[in-house]
Structures are given as C-alpha cells and as structure tokens.
Fold this sequence. Notes:
The protein is α/β, with parallel strands linked by helices. It has two domains: 238 residues, Queuine tRNA-ribosyltransferase-like (TIM Barrel, Alpha-Beta Barrel), CATH 3.20.20.105; 94 residues, no CATH class. Helix content is 41%, strand content 19%. The protein is built from 15 helices and 17 strands. The strands form four sheets. The chain has a nine-stranded parallel sheet with strand order 4-15-14-13-12-11-7-6-5. The protein has a three-stranded antiparallel sheet with strand order 1-2-3. Strand 1 and strand 2 form a beta hairpin. Helix 6 packs across helix 7, helix 7 runs parallel beside helix 8 and helix 10 packs parallel to helix 14. The chain is globular, with a radius of gyration of 20 Å. It starts with a strand and ends with a helix.
Amino acid sequence: MTQPFFELLHTDPSGARRGRFHTAHGTVQTPIFMPVGTAASVKTLTSADLQEIQAQIILGNTYHLYLRPGHRLIAQLGGLHRFMHWPGPILTDSGGYQVFSLGAMRRIREEGVTFRSHLDGSAHLLSPELAIQIQEDLGSDIMMQLDECPPYPAKRDYLAKSLQLSVRWGARCLAARRPDRQQALFGIVQGGMEADLRQESAAALIELGFDGYALGGLSVGEPKEKMAEVLSYAPALLPKEQPRYLMGVGKPEDLVEAVAAGMDMFDCVLPTRNARNGQLLTRWGARNIKQARFREDARAVDAHCLCHCCQHYSRAYLHHLFRNKEIAVLRLMTLHNLHYYLDLMEGMRQAIATDRFAAFRADFYQQRLSGDED
C-alpha cells in the first residue's frame, strides 16, 4: 500500500495553492471538492456516476456507518471501497460534528461523547479510540480525529476548554492508530472566532504531528464576515508542506475565497441537497427549476457545461420532471451540481498553475453579476 504524502506543487501570488495528495487508492489533485456520501452513497448517484463526473475523492460518515450497517460488517465485507464499489480515495469524518448536532441527546466528557442514536434511541459512547477503530475498519484513506465542534456563539472560556479537550482527544487518536495501516490522520483546529485560541489549537496539534490539518467550527451559523476573518489568518497557522482541509464549507464563492486564503480540500452537502430541493448551481448563480419561467425553456441549464444533464436535457424537461415528482430529476440535477463544483475546482487548479488566480477570481464574480441570457 502507498504511504500517504502531500506534494505542494505551486503557490500563486495570491496565496492559492496547487498540490497533490497521494493515497493507497489514488492521487488527489488539490484544491479539491469532496462529494459527501453520508451512508456509503452520494445521494441519487452511483459510483459510476461519480467516476463519470471525475470525482477524485468522496467523503463517508463515521457516525452514520457506525450505527447502520455497522463498521464491523463493512470490514467483514471488504471495507468501504468494496462495499460501495468506489475505487478512489475516501475521507471519513470522525462523527464529532454529527454528535454535536444531536444537542440535548449527547453529553461530552473526558472519556468521549455519550449519545443516543437518532435511529432507535440506543445509548452509545464514542471515544477517540473507537472513532479510530471505526475508521480503520471502514478502510478510508484519510481519517479525522475526534474533536468537539463548539456552537456559535460560544463564550471564550468554553472555547478554550473545548479546544484543549480536542487536543487531548487528538493525542489519543494518534496513539490508537494501528502502526501497520497506511491511512492518513488529520487533526482539527478549533477555537471559534478567537484568533489566539485558533493559534493555540494549531500549535498544539502540529506538535502532536498529524498527516494533515483541518479547520473546524466554521459554517455553524456564524456570519459570513466572521468566517472570512478566520480564513484571513488561520491557514497561515498550518504547515505549508501538509494538506489543509476546510470542513463543511461549500458555497461556490466560499470555495473561491478559501482557495485564495490557502486552503486545499473542501466538502459540503450543499450541491447534492440543493439539487434535491430543485436548485441548480451555475456560473451565473443559483436557478430554481420549479419556477414557471422554465416551463417552455428549451435550452440546456448551461450550454457550455459538459455534464450528462446539460448535454441531453432541457430546462423545460427538468421543470416538468420536478413538478411531477419524477425521481430521475434528482439524479440529473445532482449530476449537474457536482459537475459544476468539480469543474470550478479544475478551473482554479489551472489558474493557480499559471499564476492567473487573481484573474480567475475576478472573472468568477463578474459572471455572477452579469446573469445568463435569460
């Protein structure tokens, strides 16, 4: 198996980075967006669909797969790659964010997080050691440490104690990792919107020595300007020679700004969830296919888009399918939205490689201001 490692290939004058992350299941070109496959499936799509749109890496969810069908069963069946017939790299989160989302149904203590399943109310303890065991059994290429994701807003004292707990859990995750496994393990920087706490968290995790580092605790309800403030300094706290992952952030403009800030990896449910709600994401902005103006519109969603949806179907057809609750439309719109995201990342990679990222960024916003031909 390939020992995971990261190559920083080029840095644009803006600070945007072009790199490669090598894993046992292939090489990931960065910056990259990772489609979210919560329960071993990117909703409405098959693994063949994901390969068709040239997805390089996908994300699986530790919490959901632990509860159902269970990590031991997936290991017995050959691991997550074989289980879902996906040949490329997989990143698994630790389950910390999902447990955070349970609110009153969970309790945080030094040992780990006790919580009740959203499926049947059964009681569980998710410890750092169990989080690693689950991810190793799943066989993902990139594992995440168990951390506490504090809410926004949160008091400074709480944030300080929380990040220290996450650092201790990070150390336990590293100690629990099997030495014979070729899986990368990322640490997660917390600290809320406090710059000095973010610095404290990053320094402590770097001292522990992870294979990559993520920024957590963003896109949890904070104003956009707060996220921009954190991104103005936090990437520089992380090692240049290792991958930088911004967790759960994913509007197109957020991706462009985060790449400009020096981040490399991203995930978000937005393109898949919004597709299921009738929203198409395009270079001109979002389009709601339910609107009556699309009823007789014979054009493709985007005449320049090479996805299966845009190459073969009209806006009028998608409108018809959605209004009639035909399941096929969910797949077609998800294909388009993810293709748009992956094409956006490819455009950024090319721009960085040729020192044109500033021009790319300006063109991105100019297109969104101009609107399309309708």
